[in-house]
Amino acid sequence: MAPTPRTLVTGCGAICAAGRTPDEIWDAVADGRSAISEIQQWDTSGWPTRIAAEVPNVKPAELLKDRKLPKLIRRTDIFGLYAAARAIDSSGLIGHRNGLEADAAAHFNDRSAVYVGTGGGTYDSQYDYLPLLAVAEGKLETFGRELESTVNPMWLLRALPNNVLCHIGIRFGLKGANACITNHCVGGALAVGEAVAALRAGEADRAVVVGHDALIEPQHILYYQRAGLLATDSIRPFDANRSGSVFGEGAGALVLETDATAAARGATVLGECLGSGATTDAMGLLAIRADGDGLARAIAAALEDAGIAAKDVGMIVAHGNGTTQSDASEAAAIRQIFAANPPPVTALKWAFGHLFAASGVVETLVALWALRERSVPGIATLLELDPDCADIQIASRTQVPRSDIALVLSRGFAGTNVALLLRATATGN
Amino acid sequence: MGERRRVAITGIGLVTPVGTGVASSWGSLLAGRSGVAPIGLFDASGFPVRIAAEVKGFDPATIVDDRKLLKFANRSHGFALAAAEEAMQDAGIRPTPADATRWGCSVGTGMMGLEFTELEAIHRECAPSGELDTDLLLESDAAADPIAFCRSQVTSGLALLTRRFGIHGYATAVHTACASGGQAIGTALKLIRRGSVDYTLAGGFDSMISPVGLAGFCLLGALSPDNDRPTHASRPFDATRNGFVLGEGAGFVVLEEWSAARRRGARIYAELAGEGNSLSGYRITDSPPSGDGPIQSMRQALADAGAPTSEVDYINAHGTSTPMNDRSETAAIHAVFGPGTARTAVSSTKSVTGHLIAAAGAVEVVACALAIRDSEVPVNANLEELDPDCDLDFVLGSPRKQHVRIALSNSFGFGGSNNCIVLRNPEEIDEREQGGS
Questions:
Q1: For the segment A81-116, what is each residue's pLDDT rounded down to a tens digit?
Q2: Residue tagged active-site, from B105, B175, B318, B368
Q3: ipTM (interface predicted TM)
Q4: Which residue is closest to A412 within chain B, CA to CA?
Q5: Which of B126, B355, B368, B420 is catalytic?
Q6: CA A229 – CA A218 distance, rounded (Å)
Q7: A163 in contact with B at a CB cutoff of 8 Å?
Q8: C-alpha span between A344 and B132 (Å, rounded)
Q9: Residue B158 to residue A414, Cβ atoms within 8 A
């Protein structure tokens, strides 16, 4: 049996309020700049939550270099496809394929996987029916009769959660193994984990991985605010006075390749995915365990999957969503695994908000940059460290990673926890 | 690295338009008794399509003894909890505190959103003119209902299932439109193979029979308009087919690592032997006439299972009854099976159940497991006028008694996500090869 392939990162792309490339996003994080500001998409005067990290000046046709496509998809899909295109372009995959003979190119396409994580959708996609409901005046018979004259015939297709997956297939001709993981905030991280598993199992030679989400809309914000999940000023992960999270939006994308195929085409290697672990607390949609048990098990599973020990981890990007409960249980999980010897810990959502399903991928990219720069960015909004978290190496200042390996944590509704382990490639490799 | 782990299907559960439970559903599936009828869930009299395959007389409380949990369940979650309960009881195991972390859960879910009555409330309270007024939204009761929020999220079903059964391992929800259910079961197979978990509860659930769901498919012109002949409207592969019929329901399986299932003396329906996924990369709603895409998912699944086409005795087709899908799928089966196509029984159980969307693939995997158990293949109902473009060995008129060595279940989704699942008859497995792994 052939040895299990290594899975290398050979392309990347990202977009969020902090920037439109991983470099721009890294610079914002490293400089301590937060992109959270007043919501622009609707008038929030009088609203209990008035802030978010919106991507400014979104011009879909420019982002996608396509005038027709934006009419068929939603804002979240635009981000996802943009990040995917940047990742694919930066990897040089398509140019390589286009240089192959026809049979080899067809084989290349069949061996190219696509794994997408997305939050699953927004409430406003159902608002396309509000004008029809107004016409119907409570009568379903009228609703049915006036349907075709009132609602966009493409409504269902625009609302499909798997649009990014499909359009990557159509646009780039990639036809291999695939999944659209609609698992809330861990969707992107699970997509990375599943892509790694597919490459290891020999189901594909390379994979495009995308996490994308755009949930900044009135109804979503209200539900979260009323569930007590949102802050009113900023995200302060692990701060004694933290009060909740802030919505962000965007997408991150990676190209992963087996070491053999990456070497064969001389690809530039940015890093390596070493392993992952996933669990659930099984407490229902919103509840999580205070002791961090599920997250600790995810980290332990990832370490085992990667074949490394806790002491080998050089830095941690915590989920750090800024809610009282989640951050406390996350600190408990880190303490349980790393005991008295944790590596430097940071969290990133203060800079670009909570990216939901995009978090796992965008934060993975920032972690790779941090390893490369040998600099764990500080949490700029951290004013007074929660005394309960004081023992786990969290700081508002920059720290130095103790190795070239990062642990990236993601958590989501349904009590899900995902841990990813990555290694940065030394410069010049 | 040791031998690859084998995976057994040891429990099955169904809620379909032709029965709540495996026994009643399977009887109707075999015999071709249609579940399609005029829509009764709401007044569809103004819609161009007024028929669907509804789950009838369903009350989750009779199956799931947790009123508090059911408060957070919408219609499709009720189907999921009931079908999963049946699968667990059928398997005769369920997670215990000692092994909860070795259990995973993988589900194919429908689209997120509010129930229609909740959307109506948003309209009344916040959008009387048809456009959302955010100031009214802020004041409305409709947008302040935590139960509506909890029911509407895309992971709501996963949250209910993992909580209900105490599943603490890998939990995931996937959505590739009509391929979701198959893909969820394929994901579960891989979780056990790679050792992430030893047991998985896997399946799919959906209910789009609501004014908004029905409207979405009506607008696309995807549904059969045969309102006057509901039981004949879904006729996959028939020359006069003219669209699919919307169905609803859930299918679940309990999966276990093979040798552990053997050790505990479990009844094994089938080996979950292989999975293949591909993208057609063609168009969002159209299937490529050549079968490109489905060809790769079938080949990959068979290769994954180590199964030659000559051992495949039954294909549960995606067979939606749309002109394009059935032609494309026929072309794909020809491409994969070559001359063997003539000897491979094919039926689409959507002829009976309609199209269960995100649940379809899971329900149809269960149908394959039952075909293997009973050595009997369900009929392709309503296939009366043969289409020269659809020349397969269809099971016509009545179910076919035959030993099934390998069964294959196809699911193809909007956007070109294709999934194929391969099941192997346990009698075909030489246990001595296992070496006790």
A1: 999 999 999 999 999 999 999 999 999 999 999 999
A2: B318
A3: 0.97
A4: B155
A5: B355
A6: 15
A7: yes
A8: 46
A9: yes
